[in-house]
């Protein structure tokens, strides 16, 4: 029976991209993430959902060591990217973040031109040997960010002069410019109108061809629309992780059910 | 159970309750239609038959309302999980109830014709027993729905076999009557359609029971339910 489902909903790979085992996160005395075990697949959009303060953003930030920037934060357990421990002493967090890119809730373009916003990452990571290669990367990234047609005639204009939706797509283009393998998105659409949201969601679906995408969202409908896998967090625990359609029609855990159906749980 | 907790949005709870109240109202009317139609046939009561025919309009209107309310809920609330299954199941249950109502109406219409002919002995009570069995199944299926009881629903599903067997037995009786005396043919043809329609009602009740199982468990039962209708392979000369 399952074979009759529309093809694109089937995750066509079971290659594990990121594997987390027994992950604990403390902020000072606060135990924010408790015993999280999860495998995130390649070429798959995984949505993290859960009420505010449930730990989904904290866990997301573990995946590219953004928590390193917080002094009181302690991360324990194993997080493997393609089987390599990302918390190993030999791993350079800056190199890691080139492989595991991030897009934030609020669009945060650099106070530079549109061109330089995109070119910044490839420059510092030495991805282009000359100007024409850099031009190519900029164009390709802006096309991937579905914003090329809107900005191609004003690449020298400041990125901050774009509309909110355009700025967010610029940030996504910037994140993909370094050819990351994983893209982390922390509520990328919460500041966008429905049209810009739809454009970003369409973009996420296209990005899945090349990247693993992990998206934190407060919108159940968005999680249902864009992801193939959904993980539900509650009070620091990963309660349930499974195929998105299954989670939204027949969740196994009562806490998941209460949350996604808008009940007091 | 967890889905008996209230929604944060109380209007959502009220909407879901209102749709389900309409299903229960429809179910009550359809149960009465089955019983009345069979009673009108057994008692040769034309007035009661007419009441069943006229009453079908209300059932159709309720089906329309349920579908409209369900569509509205899908559009406005985007229900998920148990709520989604509730909305999907009311659409299907309403559709099945509406069809059972149609079959009852058809039975009552044929009663109007049959009362003009001389009765075929013993068939009225036999059809009434069969209709009664389906009506009890429907009542149990709707109880199972209200109580979210997949076990009772499965029991209903299994009981459809008995209705199929009653139909088989009537089918053979009608053949015998028709072979005995060709003047019985017109009446027996009508009676056979009635019996076949009641057998189909049983299938629709089974479909309702399957929706209850889907609603409660998230899965449609996959095992084939017992099939008792063998008349597709029946001949007159095979003795």
TrEMBL record, chain A:
**Molecular functions per Gene Ontology:** ATP binding; ATP hydrolysis activity; phosphate transmembrane transporter activity
UniProt xrefs under Pfam families: ABC_tran
Q: From which organism does this entry originate? A: Aliiruegeria haliotis
Q: NCBIfam families, per this entry?
A: 3a0107s01c2
Tell me the CDD domains matching this sequence.
Answer: ABC_PstB_phosphate_transporter
Q: Which residues form the ABC transporter domain?
A: 18-260
**Recorded GO CC terms:** membrane
What protein does this entry describe? Answer: Phosphate ABC transporter ATP-binding protein (PhoT family)
Automatic annotation (TrEMBL), chain B:
Pfam families in the cross-refs: PhoU
Q: Where is the composition biased (Basic and acidic residues)?
A: 220-232
Q: Name one GO cellular component term.
A: cytoplasm
In which compartments does the protein localize?
Answer: Cytoplasm
Disordered: annotated span: 218-239
Q: Which UniProt keywords apply?
A: Cytoplasm, Phosphate transport, Transport
InterPro entries registered for this protein in UniProt: PhoU (IPR028366), PhoU-like_sf (IPR038078), PhoU_dom (IPR026022)
tRNA-binding keyword on record: no
Q: Which GO terms describe its biological process?
A: intracellular phosphate ion homeostasis; negative regulation of phosphate metabolic process; phosphate ion transport
Q: How does it assemble?
A: Homodimer.
| NCBIfam families, alphabetized | phoU_full
Name assigned to this protein: Phosphate-specific transport system accessory protein PhoU
